[in-house]
Design a protein that fits this description.
Layout (H helix, E strand, L loop, with lengths): L6 H19 L15 E16 L7 E4 L3 E11 L4 E12 L9 E18 L2 E18 L8 E19 L2 E16 L2 E16 L1
Antiparallel strand pairs: 1-2, 1-3, 1-9, 3-4, 4-5, 5-6, 6-7, 7-8, 8-9
Length: 208
C-alpha cells in the first residue's frame, strides 16, 4: 500500500508517463516533422548500485553502518525536451538493497522523482549522439526487513542523485544509453530512526 503522502506524487508521475506515451503515439506529418533531438522519448534502463553503505539502527542496537551489497534494479524515464540543451521528466526506479552481511534479505526500494538533464548533442560518424549530466530528487518508499526472520515494513523518505551519461541513436527512434553516477535514498520508519542507502550507480539501457 502506498503511504498517503506519496499517493499524489505517484499519480502525477504515472499521469506524466501516460501523457508522454499519448504524445509519442501521435506522429506528426512529414511537413511538421520535429527535429529528432526535440522529440519526447522514453528511457528503459537496467541499473546496478555498487560500493557504498547502508546505515540503520538494525533492531535497536544503535546506528550501524554496513557495506552495501550490489543493488540490481530497473528504471523508466520519460524524457521531454525543453530546449536544445535541457530536458526534464519523471522517473520511476525499482531496486533491491541489502547489507553485505549474513542474515539479511534484499529489501525493495521504489524511487519516484522528477529529473532535469543538461545535454550537448553532436554527430559520432553517421550517428547522432549526446553527452549529458542528469540530476534527480524526489520521494522514496522502502519495504524493509531487518533480518530474514522479520516481516516487511514500509518507510517513506527521499532520494537524490547525479549522473553523467552518453547516448547514441542507432536508428531514428532507437538508441543506447550508459551512465555512471551516484545516488542516495533515505527512508524513515515509525520504530526505527532511518535507513540510508548511499551508492555509486551504473545504468545501461535503451532510448526509444
Amino acid at each position: 500500500m502506498i503511504p498517503c503522502m506519496l499517493r499524489p506524487l505517484a499519480r502525477a508521475v504515472f499521469g506524466a508517463l501516460v501523457l508522454q506515451a499519448a504524445l509519442a503515439a501521435a506522429s506528426p506529418s512529414p511537413a511538421l516533422a520535429v527535429e529528432p533531438s526535440m522529440q519526447n522519448r522514453f528511457d528503459l534502463l537496467f541499473r546496478l548500485g555498487f560500493g557504498g553503505s547502508i546505515v540503520s539502527n538494525l533492531g535497536g542496537v544503535g546506528r550501524v553502518r554496513l557495506a552495501a551489497a550490489a543493488t540490481p534494479g530497473g528504471e523508466l524515464r520519460g524524457d521531454i525536451p525543453l530546449t536544445k540543451h535541457i530536458t526534464m521528466g519523471p522517473l520511476v526506479a525499482v531496486y533491491a538493497a541489502r547489507p553485505n552481511a549474513v542474515g539479511f534479505d534484499r529489501s525493495p526500494v521504489v524511487d519516484l522523482a522528477p529529473f532535469v538533464k543538461g545535454r550537448y548533442t553532436f554527430r559520432a560518424g553517421r550517428k547522432k549522439a549526446e553527452i549529458y549530466g542528469l540530476f534527480h530528487a524526489g520521494f522514496s518508499m522502502a519495504f524493509i526487513r531487518r533480518s530474514i526472520r522479520e516481516t516487511s515494513r514500509v518507510g517513506a523518505g527521499w532520494n537524490i542523485g547525479l549522473a553523467p551519461g552518453f547516448q547514441v541513436m542507432i536508428k531514428k527512434r532507437f538508441g543506447i544509453i550508459t551512465e555512471l553516477g551516484w545516488s542516495r535514498a533515505q527512508a524513515f520508519f515509525s520504530n526505527e530512526p532511518n535507513l540510508v542507502l548511499n551508492q555509486g550507480i551504473w545504468r545501461l539501457g535503451f532510448v526509444f
